[in-house]
Amino acid sequence: MWNGADRREPLLFPAMVTSAAAMLACNRLRISVPGRLLVDNLAMTLSAGEFLAVLGQNGSGKSLTLHTLAGLRDRDSGDIELGGQPLDAMKRIDVARRLALLPQYTDDVFPATVLDTALAGRHPHLRALQWETATDRDIARRSLEAMDLAELEHRDVGTLSGGERRRLAIAEVLAQAPGIYLLDEPTNHLDPQHQLQVLQVFAEHANAGATVVASLHDVNLAARYADRCLLLFGDGRWKLGATRDVLNSSLLSELYDTPMEPVPWRGRELFVAAGSAP
Question: Which whole-number Å values give the CA distances from 227 to 128, 175, 208, 241, 276, in the listed order?
Answer without folding.
Answer: 39, 24, 14, 9, 31
